[in-house]
Amino acid sequence: PILTLWCREIEEAQNQAQELTNRLSEFGRELFGAGWVEVVGAVDRIPNATEPQRFTILLQKILDKVNRMVIYLDNMESLLNGPDNDDTEAFGNWRSQEVEEIWKVLKEMSGDKLTAVASCRYRNPAFKDDIIHVPEMTDSAIFRMMGWFDGLRRLSVENRARLVDRLHGHPRAVEFLEDLISEAI
Known about the structure:
This protein is mainly α. It contains 8 helices and 5 strands, in the order βαααβββαβαααα.
């Protein structure tokens, strides 16, 4: 099983750690059905349990029942405060200690049964040993990607070609542009 945590969706949440735990719990319910309610109930009855502790227990319960799983945190920069400047060597800092602890749990539990992967625009000391740099996409790849989206396909080939230059090889920019065009249409 693959759990994708769309961090951008919880960027404005008051308690991002709780939201991550809730998403993990929903995933457990989807995997295991009604029996998962008992697991969550037992975890909820643990006095003074922190979100990282709840997350860890729920994740372990899931790992006990699967052969292998992947957790992917998309746009993990939504869980960090960005650097104060445009310096590409500057670091982003975690928005909360609990979210940082959840990331540490994912790293510690990764191994034979769990693979944790994240995409993030910011650097952080916690990532130093695990970074895979992904270069910008080529102009031709960005142009081909535009063809995947209904709204962007409505533009003329010439207009799509002109937009490629402005997207600077960033695939998320293509997605944002699709949203803008779809709303305008």
